[in-house]
Amino acid sequence: MQEEFLITKEGYSYSFDPSACNSCEGACCTGESGYIWVKYNEIESIANYLNISVDEFANNYLKKIGHRYSLIEKVIAANNYACIFFDESINRCTIYPVRPKQCITFPFWEQYKNNKDEVKKECPGIK
């Protein structure tokens, strides 16, 4: 029997079982339309990972929102969106090694800190 490995973060009333990602179908990468914020150093890392220029990356994968940048989304069904880098055929992120901090820190987002029930709706790995 495989031992469960849980990730915790101080100040959060829940823990996260990363092995749940193996059976999840990308709930954190799909759903309602939203923003996937990226900073310039993340843009550079992703562009480098994709072996394209920052300009090409910006033109093809970013949208500007005020003074910030977000990865674009794609429509995968009615009222269901996914990050442009989510491959729904395998339910995996295609840029996982260089994914943005926003993705790395999920499910430990400030908005969920005192709302375990809400994050449980988003993530089957919440314990």
Explain how this protein is built.
It is a single chain. The chain is an alpha+beta fold. It has a domain at 28-109. It is built from four helices and eight strands, in the order ββααββββββαα. The chain has a three-stranded antiparallel β-sheet, with no helix packed on it. Strands 2-4-3 form a three-stranded antiparallel β-sheet. A two-stranded antiparallel sheet has the order 7-8. α1 crosses α2 (54-61). It is globular, with a radius of gyration of 15 Å.
Task: Briefly say what this structure is.
With 127 residues, the chain is α+β, with helices and mostly antiparallel strands.
Radius of gyration: 15 Å
Strand order of the largest sheet: 1-6-5
Q: What structural category arises from helix and sheet content?
A: alpha+beta
Treating each run of at least 4 consecutive H or I residues as one helix, how many helices?
4
Instruction: Name the average pLDDT.
Output: 89
- Percentage of helical residues? 10-25%
Order of H and E elements: EEHHEEEEEEHH
Task: Give the helices and strands, then pairings.
Layout: E1 30-31, E2 37-38, H1 40-50, H2 54-61, E3 62-65, E4 68-71, E5 73-77, E6 80-83, E7 86-87, E8 92-93, H3 101-105, H4 116-122
Antiparallel strand pairs: 1-6, 2-4, 3-4, 5-6, 7-8
Helix pairs in contact: 1-2
Give the key terms.
alpha+beta; three-stranded antiparallel beta sheet; 20% strand; 127 residues; 4 helices
